[in-house]
Structure formats: C-alpha cells, structure tokens
DNA sequence: CGACAAAAGACAGCCAGGGTGTCTATTATT
DNA sequence: AATAATAGACACCCTGGCTGTCTTTTGTCG
C-alpha cells in the first residue's frame, strides 16, 4: 500500500515523538521533571565542547541570545555552571555540572533502552536499515533541534 | 553499526524536517509564503470534518482556545471561512475556502513528489517497509502535530 | 601603536503557537 | 424547571525562538 507524502512526514514525526515523549516521561519518573528534550540536547552540546553561549548557538543553529536563554534556565536548575573565562574577558565559560551529567547519562540509557525495544519489535536488522536509509536521506544535514513549545513542554498532555 | 537511541530520535526528526522544510519552501515558491505546516494540518482537519474550534481542538489534541487562534489566522488569510452554525447558536461553523483547498492540493502534490524522490533514492519497497515499521511502532498513536515556533516559522532559517 | 573591525554577552522587546481561567449564552439531560 | 455540559470569546501567561542595541574586549591591519 502506497502512502501519501504527508503521511510519511507524520509517521516520522510520530516516531520521533513516541521516543522523545517516552524518554521525557521516564526521566520525569526518575525525578527530572524539569528536563525538556531541548535541555538535554543543549547539555550534550555543552558537554561536547560548546563552552560559550555563542558556540552553543552555532552548534544548535540558533542565535546566541536564544542559546543564552537556554543556558540561563539550565544554570538556574543546576545542570550547567557558568563562570568567567580566564582566556577571554568577553566570554563566559560553560560547564555541565555533576547533576547535569547525571541527567545526560540517564537520558542516554533511556533512549538506548527505547531503541532496544524497537529493535526487539521489528528486528535489529530492520531498525538499522531504517537508520541507514534515514541517514542517507536526511542525515547529512545538521538537524535543527529547535523546539519551542511543544517539545519543551511538560509531560502529561494533551489537554 | 549500532546507533544510540538519541541518534535514532534525531534521525526521525531530521527526516521529518527534511520533508516539511522542503514542502514549505516549495509552497512558498508557489506564492504561499504564509502557510506553515501547522496551518496545512489544521486545514486538512477542517476539510475532513472538524467544523468548529472545539472539534478542531479535539482533532489536533490542543485546547479549543489554541485551535481558535489558528482558525483566526487562517480566516484572516482567507484560507478558512467562519459563519454561524444554523443548527446550534453556540457554534461557529468552519469551512475551507477555495483558496484553502488550493493550498491543500498543492501541499499534497508537493509532499507526494518528495516521497517519490525518496522512493527513487532508496527503493519503493524499502520506503514502504519503513512506513510499515513506523506505523507498527508509533502509528497507532494519534500524533500530536502541535508545532509552536520552529515548525511554524518562516522559511529561510537558520539565523 | 592606533584605528577599526569583529566578537562576546547583556538587556530589551517581539513572535508563534501552545496553555489556563473566566464568562455568558445555548443546548442537553435529569 | 433546574442543572449540567458545551460553545466561543476574552484575557493573560509561557517557552523557546527572533531582532536590535549597547558596552567591553580582542584581533587585525596599516
């Protein structure tokens, strides 16, 4: 049965949301109710070397001001620390805190568990085939993870 | 090569965005620069029978107030008409205009063209296999298409 | 070395598309 | 007839994006 292009797009979105919603719910169950997917993603980038608002903005393909906003939230919640950069007085250097790393580790484990479940349901080879195809079709572009609103929202919806 | 669960989620999102961004850009090229994916989706639901703000909200799994907001935008732009419902004085009956149907038809054609391109790149059977698997994994859940911000944004990003 | 350009972060205000709360009018149910 | 449920309108809020502006600091160039 051949589907419409719009159905395909919605299936991809549905798959994404199934994973992300499940991961967010599990993280909330583990005590991290205030961690949105975009926060997790930003922390990953910071942990990977984006140690300033401007660099984080470049990594996430968003403006430095938006990045700074996210950083402020993460700092407020104790996931990220921000101090002056000894090498450059203009900059503030970012670091993921121990708490932040704990979120990252747990998030990683949860996502991998969810993926395993998918592999068990459709077969590991099939899942890898999907991943390879998607990589070929869309994986070359850096995916923009900007997720205002819905993906950053509290779990427990819809209204 | 086995990937992480988070990578899988991002691949799905990347695929979705590749399709949606391309479709939005093409629609804009055809003169519909003010049509966001969420607008297209809302119009589909209205055309399919969601003839009131409350029903549209239920279809999209959003509040009636949010639905009303989207409707107001669509009405303003001439894609949807809203008049009193002769059967129920509480209601406003919604209808997609001719202009709105034109957007829907073009959007449909564009998405199908994009899907065909994918089928040509990875093979029609492979693409259908992906669709079937995704349907099995996540297709049973109504996907919430609420897309504040990024997906509703103008084409031409990132900044 | 000085002038100028580029970069950093902070501050301010704006936006889209979600949300909640409240209200009045209408319809449905008991 | 009384009450419950529903509709839309209005108001305000939120998140995570955006743009513009500013001052300070660093880098580049003549």
What does this structure look like?
The structure is a homodimer of 159-residue chains. Chain A has 159 residues and is mainly alpha-helical. The first copy, chain A, is globular. In chain A, helix 2 crosses helix 5 and helix 3 packs across helix 4 (64-76). The first copy, chain A, has a single domain, classed as Arc Repressor Mutant, subunit A, CATH 1.10.10. The longest helix of chain A has 25 residues, at 5-29. Chain A contains 6 helices and 2 strands, in the order ααααββαα. The first copy, chain A, has helices spanning 5-29, 37-47, 53-60, 64-76, 98-122, 124-139, and strands spanning 80-84, 92-96. The structure holds a DNA duplex (30 and 30 nucleotides).
Topology, element by element:
The structure is a homodimer of 159-residue chains.
Chain A: H1 5-29, H2 37-47, H3 53-60, H4 64-76, E1 80-84, E2 92-96, H5 98-122, H6 124-139
Antiparallel strand pairs in A: 1-2
Helix pairs in contact in A: 1-5, 2-5, 3-4, 5-6
Chain A binds a DNA duplex (30 and 30 nucleotides) through helix 4.
Instruction: Say what the CATH topology of chain A is.
Output: Arc Repressor Mutant, subunit A
How are strands sequenced across the largest beta sheet of chain A? 1-2
The whole-angstrom Rg of chain A is 17 Å
Count structural domains of chain A.
1
Indicate the mean pLDDT of chain A: 86
Shape of chain A: globular
* Percent strand of chain A: 5-15%
Number of helices of chain A: 6
- Give the chain pair forming the largest contact, with residue counts: A-B, 64 and 64 residues
The quaternary structure here is homodimer
What pattern of helices and strands is seen along the backbone of chain A?
HHHHEEHH
Distance between the termini of chain A: 34 Å
Structural class by sheet pairing and helices of chain A = mainly alpha
Largest sheet of chain A: 2 strands, antiparallel
Q: What's the count of strands of chain A? A: 2
Helix content, binned percent of chain A: 55-70%
CATH class of chain A: Mainly Alpha
CATH superfamily descriptor of chain A:
Winged helix-like DNA-binding domain superfamily/Winged helix DNA-binding domain
Low-confidence spans of chain A: 146-159
């Amino acid at each position: 049965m051949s589907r419409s292009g719009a159905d395909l797009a919605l299936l991809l979105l549905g798959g994404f949301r199934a994973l992300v919603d499940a991961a967010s719910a599990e993280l909330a169950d583990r005590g991290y109710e205030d961690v949105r997917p975009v926060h997790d993603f930003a922390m990953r980038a910071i942990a990977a070397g984006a140690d300033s608002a401007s660099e984080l903005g470049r990594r996430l393909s968003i403006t430095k001001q938006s990045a700074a906003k996210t950083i402020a939230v993460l700092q407020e919640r104790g996931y990220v620390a921000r101090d002056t950069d000894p090498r450059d007085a203009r900059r503030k250097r970012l670091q993921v805190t121990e708490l932040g790393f704990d979120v990252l580790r747990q998030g990683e484990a949860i996502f991998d568990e969810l993926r395993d479940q998918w592999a068990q349901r459709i077969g590991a080879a099939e899942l890898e085939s999907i991943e390879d195809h998607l990589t070929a079709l869309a994986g070359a572009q850096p995916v923009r993870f900007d997720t205002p609103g819905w993906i950053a929202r509290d779990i427990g919806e819809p209204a």
